[in-house]
Write a structure and sequence with these properties.
Layout lengths: L1 H5 L14 H14 L3 H14 L4 H13 L3 H14 L4 H13 L3 H14 L4 H12 L2 H10 L4 H31 L4 H13 L3 H17 L3
């Protein structure tokens, strides 16, 4: 009112600004975590969520505190709860994929990464992790190949395993290509794709990737 009377402002109005509760509570909880008072941290989060049960920010903050404390199972539960509140959030799906992969549940990890990519095709980390997940099956195949002898039957098994490994390579290629399209300076993705092109004898693509890798290494790409 004083500003209007003074002529410095016009059209006074009441306006709600975005609440900072989630950020404040998160910071309080992190202070408790840093002091080693983990129970107080979680209690602060839970009290805030009782008052604001639909606040996704508070839910994610509690999940992050649980992860910081090393409680991966509780982190996963909270992220799953968050996905129910926000099913079209690609980052939440990605986080579930990471947790599932770390726990050895590769089938679920693939499902979550796939959902993240569907929701956001330009999610480079989800594309890369999907490729890594696919290629993780290579180790077992190589172990089988190395355990074989030199009999005709073993040679036949070797050829079948070689084809199976090539199938993994070809399945991973689109995800690595997309990851590089989104982040052209992703050196690790470029190196992996280059090695795959070499393994499946895609010579022209290998040469192009080799030149790209050399340029990235010279320029400090990441």
């Amino acid at each position: 009112d004083i500003s209007v009377k003074a002529g410095t402002h016009i059209l006074p109005k009441d306006r709600k600004t975005e609440a900072k509760n989630a950020e404040v509570v998160k910071n309080i909880a992190l202070i408790y975590v840093n002091k080693g008072e983990n129970e107080k941290a979680i209690a602060a989060m839970k009290d805030a969520r009782k008052v604001n049960p639909d606040d996704l920010g508070l839910l994610l903050s509690e999940a992050n505190v649980q992860l910081k404390m090393g409680n991966k199972a509780e982190f996963k539960r909270l992220i799953e709860e968050a996905t129910q509140k926000d099913p079209n959030n690609a980052e939440l799906q990605y986080n579930l994929g990471v947790i599932a992969g770390e726990s050895g549940d590769l089938e679920s990890a693939r499902k979550y990464y796939s959902k993240a990519i569907t929701l956001d095709p330009n999610y480079s980390d989800a594309q890369t992790n999907m490729a890594v997940l696919i290629l993780s099956g290579e180790e077992k195949i190589i172990e089988e190949m190395n355990s074989l002898g030199s009999s005709a039957a073993d040679n036949k098994k070797y050829d079948a395993l070689k084809l199976k490994r090539e199938g993994l390579y070809r399945e991973a290629i689109p995800y690595l290509e997309e990851s590089l399209r989104i982040k052209p300076k992703n050196l690790q993705a470029a190196k992996t794709l280059m090695n795959i092109y070499s393994a499946i004898d895609e010579r022209e693509k290998f040469k192009a990737l080799k030149a790209k890798v050399e340029a990235l290494e010279a320029g400090g790409g990441n």
